[in-house]
Amino acid sequence: MFDPRVALASLSGESDARWALAASEHVGAAVLGGLALDGPTREAARELVARGRTEFLPADPLAFVDDQLTQLDDAPLRVGFNVRSTTVEPVREAARVCREHGAFLELNAHCRQAEMCAVGCGESLLRDTERLATFVAAASDEGAAVSVKVRAEVPGVDLATTARRIADAGADAIHVDAMDSESVVADVADAADLFVVANNGVRDAATVAEYFEYGADAVSVGRASDRPAVLAAVRRATDDWFAREVQP
Q1: Which of 45, 58, 93, 106 would bridge 64 by S-S if both were Cys, CB 3.0 to 4.6 A apart?
Q2: How far apart (Å, rounded) are the C-alpha atoms in residues 61 and 26?
Q3: 31 forms bridges with which residues in the sheet?
C-alpha cells in the first residue's frame, strides 16, 4: 500500500498538508485529518473546540479535503484522509475526492471523545459492525482505497471479527491503535487479508520490531510525528527489518 512502511497517524486539527510535507523524507504515507464531514459530527467538533481540543472546522469540508490533497499531489508519499460522519453520503463524496487524487479514505472508528461517540462516530461506530461495514462499502464503491482506524480494548469489540467484516465490505487496510494490547495486531493480521498498520508507542527499533513480529505490514507514528529524530529512527528500524526479511 505504501513504502517505506512508516506512516504518520492523523491528529485532529493538526494533521494537514504542511505537517505531512515536513515529515515526507522519513515516511511512506501520511493520514490527514481527522475531519468532521456532516452536521452532527461538525457540531460535536465545535463542542470539542469549546473545551480546548483542536479540530479542523472549514466552511466546506469537501473543498478542504480537495485543497489539502492538491497540495500533496506531487509529494513523495501516499496520502490518506481520516474522516468522521454519521451519514453515508458525505463519506461517498469524500471518497470520490480521495479517488481523484489517488489518496485513500480512512474511516474513523477510533475516536473516544464523548461528543463524537454520542452522535454515533468513533468508538460508537466500532461497536456497530454492520453500520461500519456499510460505510466501508459506500467508500469502496466510489473507487477509493479504504482504511479503517480502530482501537483495541473497547469492551464488547473483537477486532478480528471487525477485520473480517470490513474486508468483506471492501476495505483495503486496517489501522490499529493497539493501546496496551500489542498482541491484538497478530489477531487482526491473522483474521483477514488487509494491510495492517500498527499504531501506539512507535518510537524506536524495539517497538517497530514488536509490531512487525506480530504481523503488521507497517507502523504509524502519532504524537511524535513532529519529531524528526523519532521518525528517522523508526524509518531506519523499518528499513532494516524488511532488508532482513528479503535476505535468502
Answers
A1: 58
A2: 28
A3: 80
Tell me how far apart the alpha carbons of residues 241 and 248 are, in angstroms, rounded to a whole number: 14
- Please give the Cα distance from 235 to 240 (Å, whole number): 8
Alpha-helical segments (H) within 12-158: 17-22, 39-50, 61-71, 88-100, 114-118, 123-126, 129-141
**Domains (ranges, CATH) in the chain?**
6-246 (3.20.20.70)
The H or E element containing residue 33 is strand 29-36
Q: Rounded to 5, what percent of the chain is helix, strand, coil?
A: 45, 20, 35
Q: Residues 167, 132: contact at Cβ < 8 Å?
A: no
Please enumerate in sequence order all residues whose Cβ is within 8 A of that of 45, keeping only pairs 6 or more positions apart, or say none. Answer: 12, 36, 55, 56, 57, 115, 116
Pairing of the two strands 29-36 and 6-8: parallel
User: Within a 10 A sphere around the Cβ of 91, how many other Cβ atoms?
Assistant: 26
pLDDT at 245 over 90: no
What digits encode the pLDDT tens for the residues 169-219? Answer: 999 999 999 998 999 999 999 999 999 999 999 999 999 999 999 999 999
187 and 194 Cβ atoms separated by less than 8 Å: no
| Terminal-to-terminal C-alpha distance of the chain | 24
pLDDT band at 244 (very low <50, low <70, confident <90, very high): confident
Alpha carbons 113 and 132: distance in angstroms, whole number: 18
The torsion defined by the Cα of 89, 152, 12 and 170, in degrees rounded to 10, comes to -30
Answer whether 197's CB lies under 8 Å from 185's CB.
no
